[in-house]
Each structure stands twice: as C-alpha cells, then as structure tokens.
Amino acid sequence: MSESSAKPPLPYLKAAVICERVLRENDNVLSAIRIIDRWASSVERVDPDGHVTRVIPVKVTLMVMLISGTAGGAHTLGLALRNPQGNELRERQQFPFELPAQEDFGANLLFDLGFQTEIEGVHWFELTCDDQLLTRVPLGVYFELPKVGG
Q1: With contact defined as beta carbons under 8 Å apart, do 124 and 135 qualify?
Q2: Whose CA, among 4, 31, 80, 108, lies 20 to 30 Å from 24?
Q3: CA dist 7 to 3, 76, 110, Å?
Q4: What number of CA atoms fall less than 13 Å from residue 55's CA on the CB side?
Q5: Alpha-carbon distance 133 to 49, whole Å?
Q6: How does pLDDT run across 44-78, given as a tens digit for each residue?
C-alpha cells in the first residue's frame, strides 16, 4: 500500500453505551446511569382522518469515549440511526472533535437522542470516525419488553 493511500489512524474506542443519562462529576469523571440494551414504550397517535397509529417514542443518551493513541488532532464523528430493515431513520450527523496528542488521553462525547418508530426490533446506532466505521451499538425497541426465559 502506498503511503498516499494509507488511512490515518483512528482513535481507540474505550466505550460506546446507551443509557438513561450520564453524570459528569466536578473532577470531570463520567458515570453512565442505567445502561440499557432494550427499550419498551408506546403511545397512540391519531391523524386528522382519525387513523390510529401505535408508535414507540425513544429518549436515550449515547456515551462515546475515545482514546487518542496515535490519532491526536482534529476528527469528525459520524452518527446514523438504522432501523431493523437497515434504513437510516435520519440523515447521518457529523460532529467535529479534538483529541489531545497524549496517547492515553481522549474525548468523551455525549448525545441526547430522541426518535419515534413504528417498527419493533433491533435499531443500530452506527458510529464512524473520519468516514471509517468505528462501531455499531444495538438498541432493541419494542412496544412491550419480550419475555425472557420460561
């Protein structure tokens, strides 16, 4: 591979979790509260013609923690949400951020996310860094939580 076609290094992913909320203490330490992998809720929506649709409103926080490694400097985090069929529920958003030059330092990115869907199943938060896939984080979204076990 020639040097001109080599991709720049990506930061290390320390954590990517979906939770109810994140606390930031005075010393800048983060605590993810109620880490979840499933969400259950539903409301009925009535259109002007009287047609009733059942939707699932979702409101969560996505916490992404990155460590510089050899990737210090300016970067862009991309965030997309895909439904169980793989369709984007909203256009990919781009978030610029800076990583310090020290290899063991990093950046913490917090996203308060809300969306509505009529489709049950696993939805995916897709994270890219500088247009390279970093990870995908799943969230099962249901009208009611499925029963586990017997």
Answers
A1: no
A2: 80
A3: 9, 14, 26
A4: 13
A5: 43
A6: 888 889 888 889 999 999 999 999 999 999 999 99
Q: What is the pTM of this model?
A: 0.87
Other Cβ atoms less than 10 A from the Cβ of 11: the count is 24
| Sole residue written with tokens 């009208």 | 143
The strand ranges marked E within 28-87 are 30-35, 38-40, 43-46, 52-67, 73-82
For the stretch 107-124, pLDDT in tens is 999 999 999 999 999 999
Query: What is the sign, positive or negative, of the torsion defined by CA atoms of 144, 60, 26, 12?
Result: positive
Q: Taking a C-beta distance cutoff of 8 angstroms, is the pair 80, 45 a contact?
A: no
Compute the distance between CA of residue 32 and CA of residue 22 in angstroms, rounded to an integer: 5
Q: Closest Cα to residue 79, out of 91, 70, 66?
A: 91
Contact between residue 131 and residue 79 where contact means Cβ atoms under 8 Å apart: no
DSSP 71: -
φ and ψ of 76, to 5 deg: -130, 125
Backbone angles phi, psi at 36, to 5 degrees: -130, 155
Closest by CA position to 72, among listed 5, 8, 29, 127: 8
- Sketch out the chain's domains with CATH numbers: 41-142 (2.60.40.10)
